[in-house]
């Protein structure tokens, strides 16, 4: 039920933003989700459609932008692309890779009325 709490969290952020920026209706929500964030897009859409009912986001369309995973090898210090937590460096074969992008989830933009 990870995606349900995410959907609730997104809605909470939207409501806070609405309060601060004084808008009353949201038309589109753009989310950035990292490849490594383990979020199932389909179930996030599903739960967002449920939690947005009777809120200022009830007409909002959810758009998900994917952020590629990126890491730096601790061994040879090259920057590499990472698509799972168990990724070997393609340059030296080391598994000591520090993740620098791809774990985030944030609201990138809101289209409001
Ligand atoms: Zn390396």
How would you describe what is shown here?
There is one protein chain. The protein is α+β, with helices and mostly antiparallel strands. The protein has a single domain, classed as 2-Layer Sandwich (hypothetical protein PF0899 fold), CATH 3.30.2320. 27% of the residues lie in helices and 32% in strands. The protein has two helices and six strands. Strands 2-1-6 form a three-stranded mixed beta sheet, with helices on one face. The chain has a three-stranded antiparallel beta sheet with strand order 4-3-5, with no helix packed on it. Helix 1 crosses helix 2. The longest helix is centred in the N-terminal third of the chain and has 20 residues. It is elongated, with a radius of gyration of 17 Å. The two termini are 31 Å apart. Zinc ion (ZN) binds next to loops.
Features:
single chain, 113 residues, alpha+beta, hypothetical protein PF0899 fold, three-stranded mixed beta sheet, three-stranded antiparallel beta sheet, 6 strands, 27% helix, elongated, binds zinc ion
Q: Structural class, from secondary structure content?
A: alpha+beta
Mean pLDDT score, rounded? 95
Poorly predicted residue ranges: none
Order of helices and strands: HEHEEEEE
Shape: elongated
């Amino acid at each position: 039920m990870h995606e349900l709490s995410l959907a609730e969290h997104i809605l909470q952020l939207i409501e806070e933003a609405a309060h601060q920026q004084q808008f009353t209706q949201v038309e589109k929500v753009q989310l950035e989700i990292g490849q490594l964030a383990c979020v199932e897009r389909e179930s996030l859409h599903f739960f967002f459609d449920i939690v947005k009912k009777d809120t200022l986001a009830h007409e909002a369309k959810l758009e998900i932008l994917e952020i590629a995973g990126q890491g730096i090898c601790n061994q040879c210090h090259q920057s590499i692309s990472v698509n799972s937590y168990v990724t070997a460096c393609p340059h030296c074969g080391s598994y000591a890779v520090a993740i620098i992008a791809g774990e985030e989830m944030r609201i990138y933009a809101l289209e409001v009325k």
